[in-house]
Amino acid sequence: MPADLALVNADIKTMNPHKPFARAVAITGSKIVKVGTNQEVKKLIGDSTQVINLEGKTIVPGLIDTHVHVADFGRCLMWLDLTTAQSIVELQNMVKTKAEQTSAGRWIIGRGWNNNRFKEKRLLNLQDLDAATSNNPVILYHEAAMICAVNSEAMRLAAVTEQTSPPEAGTIDKNPETGKLTGIFRSTATNLIWQVVPEPDIDELTEASALALQKIVEAGITNVHWLVLSEIEFPVIERLYAEGRLLVRVNVVVPEGMMPKATNLQSSNPLLLRVGGVAVYVDGYLDSKTAALFEPYSDEPGNSGKILYAAEALAASVQNVLVAGLQPVIHAMGDKAVDLALKTIEMPHEKTVRFRMEQAALLNQELIQRLMVQDVVVSVQPKVISTEFTVWSATKSLGAQRAKWLHPLKSLLEAGVKVAGGSDCPMEPLNPLLGLQESVLRPSFPEQRLSMEEALRMYTVDGAYCSSEEAIKGSIEEGKLADLTVLSEDPFTVPSDKISTIAISMTIIDGKVAFSRQ
Q1: Of all helices (H) and strands (E), which one includes residue 242?
Q2: Which CATH number is associated with domain 1-62+474-518?
Q3: In CATH, what number does 202-471 get?
Q4: CA–CA separation, 210 vs 430, rounded Å?
Q5: Which CATH architecture has domain 70-194?
Q6: DSSP-assigned beta bridge partners for residue 6
Q7: Considering the entire predicted model, what is its pTM?
Q8: C-alpha distances in angstroms, 431 versus 325, 425, 515, 518?
Q9: What are the residue boundaries of the structural domains of the chain, listed by start?
Q10: pLDDT digit string (tens) for 467-495?
Q11: pLDDT tens digits for 309-366?
């Protein structure tokens, strides 16, 4: 029986150790039926077979991103893209143009500015944005995400004044001479403004999420773990599925409080849409110094972060997730939080799913060994790792001795711990090739650098293992799902600092070309 699709003259990295390389692949329906030489695959080519000559391009298994806030990403795609602004004047003109296209009173939201790119070499301020528009509230996020600049109208709507106290771990910038607000909000203080930005309705969020899914396909991603933040996302996902606009395979991960409603998210095709995991938060984040540590932060001796669960309550929550047949996705960043999470995992369970630990950022040799023994999959976002060091000054916050154990990916892999890769989009760029690049470059504590083979496993084989789907995806093997990503160049041979610039030539999902650059 002839194949439906044949890809020939390719450089195929199968991620199958028994047959690591091939030149051609044949697909029938949604399955791979042959992986081998051009001659072997040609035997399956018939009159009805679509044949694509890839002329030496590289094929890897369909890339898996285990951490995307899809709806939020969609919302961000509707925002002003400020990444190209080279001066405050240029940014002001972008805001003015947007204001001319926006009804008075409606919010203007943007992201991606960086004062280091500005000619003026300074932060935005209230006066800059008031000059751009006084008819619309404005909130513009820095490319580091947890810093925003706002105008006076935004502060008025949020009822923020000089007397407003910032929330814990947040900062509201003031002019040191006058005490006046500058319009800059940092970390948790950004929520003071964001909480008054109106939520989009279901129609708006559906279209935004559809756009996000299109961008995900174009990034070469065939399977995404959609981390839900709001209940409004459930009907959005249902609508996209019903309308045939769920362009990639989606594994839904929901917050613990939403688990009862999430179980109503029905799908007749679990290979396309499934509720897979429940997020349980044991502590906070390193950037806000709310991740729970055994010893205080080096630059804040009175602060060791905060555990969000008593041991008994955490055990009960994890048990509830297991009873529902779902995967516990345990957020634990600090070493104290990882220890508590592991104590819960180490309790007797009738385990039908793998435990997954999100971040597991600050570790030590003993914690790594316990992760290995319990077969816990660690889900990381490599671009977040570099941000921890370059933006949030992890070495200063933790001290050099502890910082060398921050996201020790090489040590995890050498111990036999499976590590899955993601982006944390839209907090960080979606591009999975950027994640590969960050993993192999790793400027901070380079002893934790990965080989390209190890880095690619995070987004393929181990990404599938994370959701217990390694039998059907994650490598290019006969009988597995025909999810493939075609790259314009070979990431194993391009310079390490150029990996992120490799173009996605084609994305194949379920045996069909979902995206082609041609």
Answers
A1: helix 233-242
A2: 2.30.40.10
A3: 3.20.20.140
A4: 15
A5: Roll (3.10)
A6: 26, 51
A7: 0.89
A8: 31, 9, 15, 19
A9: 1-62+474-518, 70-194, 202-471
A10: 999 999 999 999 999 999 999 999 999 99
A11: 999 999 999 999 999 999 999 999 999 999 999 999 999 987 788 999 999 999 999 9
